[in-house]
Amino acid sequence: MGAPVRSVERVGEKVLQSFHNTGHAMFMLFEGIWFIQFAFGKRSRRETATQMYITGIKSLAVITVVALFTGMILALQTGLELKRWGYEEFIGSAVAVTMIREMGPFMTGLIIAASVGSAIAAQLGTMTVSEEIAALEVMSINPNRFLVMPRLFALIVMMPILSVYTNILGIFGGAVVGTTQLGVSMQAYMDNATQFATNKDLYVGLFKAFIFGIIIATVACHQGFMTTEGAVGVGKATRRSVIISFLIILVVGYMVTRLFYI
Amino acid sequence: MIRFEHVTKVLGNKTVLDRISFEVGEGETFVIVGLSGAGKSVTLKHMIRLMMPDDGSILIDGQEINRLRHSALQEVRGKFGVLFQSAALLQWMSVRDNIALPLRELTHTPEEEILRLVNEKLEMLGLADAGEKFPADISGGMRKRVGLARAIIMNPKIVLYDEPTSGLDPVTSRRIDDLIVNMRSQLGITSVVVTHDLHSALSIGTRIMMLHEGRIVENASPEDFIRSKNETVQSFLESQYITKKGKWEGMGHEKV
Question: What are phi and psi of A212, to 5 degrees?
Answer without folding.
Answer: -60, -35
